[in-house]
Amino acid sequence: MLQIELVKQLREESGISVSECKKVLEEAGGNLEKARQLLQQRGKQLAAKKETREVGEGIVEAYVHPTGKTAALIDLRCETDFVARSEEFKKLAHELALQAASMAPESVEELLSQPYIRDPGKTIRDLLVESIAKIGENIVVKRLSRFEI
Q1: Cα(15)–Cα(21) distance, integer angstroms
Q2: Cα→Cα distances 18→22, 25, 100, Å
Q3: Engineering a disulfide at 105: which of 83, 110, 116, 122 sits with its beta carbon 3.0 to 4.6 angstroms away?
Q4: Of 122, 126, 114, which is closest to residue 43 (Cα–Cα)?
Q5: Which of 65, 89, 54, 46 is nearest to 148 (CA)?
Q6: Which helix (H) or strand (E) covers residue 59, if one does?
Q7: CB 4 within 8 A of CB 15
Q8: What is the largest CA-CA distance in the chain?
Q9: Which H or E run contains 64?
Q10: Residue partners of 108: CB distance under 8 A and separation at least 6
Q11: CB count, 10 Å around CB of 7?
Q12: Which strands sit side by side in the sheet containing 57-64, from one edge to the other?
């Protein structure tokens, strides 16, 4: 029973499949923290494998601050139209546009190296790697623009 609860908790935290969560928990001997670390390592390995895959689909996401004085546009790419239309991908694009509006990066590389505003313990690159692991496709931030009055 405890194993099922741990699998459920890990699944809710990571968004990774139940079978993958079960595998890493077994590898970690039931240690939840070690399982989280294993998932993070696997996500990085998966992202590295997918890095060379063509990203011909995607969306442009806009975020305008409620004051109307700051806005950001993000060109976020993926491999398939199916993923580009998914809620998970749209949510990621929105988070990246919000980050760009808030933190004023000058380039995509600067954006990727910034601490994530919702979780300063990880960078935007880490967020992207996690998303690649969840979604299963290569994801690339192609361009960004930020406007401020």
Answers
A1: 9
A2: 6, 11, 33
A3: 110
A4: 126
A5: 65
A6: strand 57-64
A7: no
A8: 56
A9: strand 57-64
A10: 141, 142, 143, 144
A11: 20
A12: 57-64, 70-78, 140-148
In sequence order, which ranges of 15-145 are alpha helices (DSSP H)?
Answer: 18-27, 32-50, 81-84, 87-103, 108-113, 124-135
Question: What does the alpha-carbon distance between residue 94 and residue 35 come to, in Å, rounded to a whole number?
Answer: 29
Mapped onto helix, strand or coil, the DSSP state of residue 17 is: coil
Structure tokens at 89: 């991908």
Q: Are the C-beta atoms of residues 24 and 10 closer than 8 Å to each other?
A: yes
- pLDDT at residue 32, rounded to an integer: 82
In terms of pTM, does the model score above 0.90? Answer: no
d(CA 40, CA 35): 9
User: One digit per residue, pLDDT tens: the chain, 149 residues?
Assistant: 457 888 888 778 777 778 878 888 888 888 888 888 887 777 777 667 777 778 889 999 999 999 999 999 999 999 999 999 999 999 999 999 999 999 999 999 999 999 999 999 999 999 999 898 888 899 999 999 999 99
Tokens of 53: 């895959």
Residue 61 tokens read as: 């996401």
* Single-letter amino acid, residue 2: L
